[in-house]
Amino acid sequence: MSLNGFTMSDFDVFNIEGLEARMEAIQSKIQPKFKELGDLLTNDLSILAGNEMYLHIARHARRKVNPPNDTWLAICHDKRGYKKHPHFQLGLFDDHLFIWFALIYEAPNKANIAESLLTNSNLIMDLPNDFVISLDHMKKEATLIGTMNESDLIADLERLRDVKKAEFLVGRHLQPNSPILKNGQTLLDFTKDTYEQLLPIYQKAMEQS
User: Which segments of the protein form a coiled coil according to its record (predicted)?
Assistant: First the structure.
C-alpha cells in the first residue's frame, strides 16, 4: 500500500469557516494521513530512542467556537499525553507543514532542559542551515538557523530557562508546493531524517525530564 502525501486541498482545510465544518474536514482528510505516517514514525522513533514511543493526534477537544488554525500529530514516550514532555511533531498550518522537536510551555522541567541545551548549544547550531527555530507553537513565524549566530540562540535558550510561558521548537518547514509533500514515502523519509538529526537534542532534553 502506498503512503499518501499532502496536497493543496489539505492546506485549504484551514480556509473553511466554522468550527464544526473545519473539524469535519480535518478528521476526514488530514487525520487519516497523520495516523498512517504517525504509526510508521512512532515505530522508527521507538527504535532510535531505545524505548516505547506513542502517537498522539490532536483532537482540539477544548475548542468550542473558534476553528483551529493548525493541526498536528505528536510522538512522545508517555502514552497518556505529550504536552508536559519533550516530544516530536508533524503538522500543518495553511501555508506550511512543520516537523518539530518541541518543548512547549507546559513542560515542568524547561529550566533544567534549557540549561543543558545552553551547555550543548552546538547540538542546535550544527544543524543544517534549512532547519528553523520557533519560540511559540501557536505562531507560524520561525527563524532559519542559517541566519542566526550563537548569541541569538543563547538568548532564545535563556528565555526558555527564565520565562514561564516560553517555548522552544526546532525542525523544518515545507511549503505546500514542495515535491517532498506529494509523495508519502518521500515525506516519511524526509521526516525520519529530520527526527534523526534532532535526536541528540531530544536525548539531552530527556536527561533532565
Answer: none
Provide the pLDDT confidence category of residue 1 given band limits of 50, 70 and 90.
low
Query: Domain locations in the chain?
Result: 8-206
The whole-model pTM stands at 0.96
Distance CA 146, CA 130 (A): 7
Q: Into which CATH architecture does domain 8-206 fall?
A: 2-Layer Sandwich (3.30)
Phi, psi of 51 (to 5 degrees): -155, 165
Answer whether 110's CB lies under 8 Å from 86's CB: no
Residue 11 CA to residue 132 CA, distance in Å, equals 20
Nearest residue to 104 (alpha-carbon basis) of 120, 125, 81: 81
pLDDT one-digit tens code per residue, 121-144: 999 999 999 999 999 999 999 999
Residue 209 has pLDDT above 80, yes or no: no
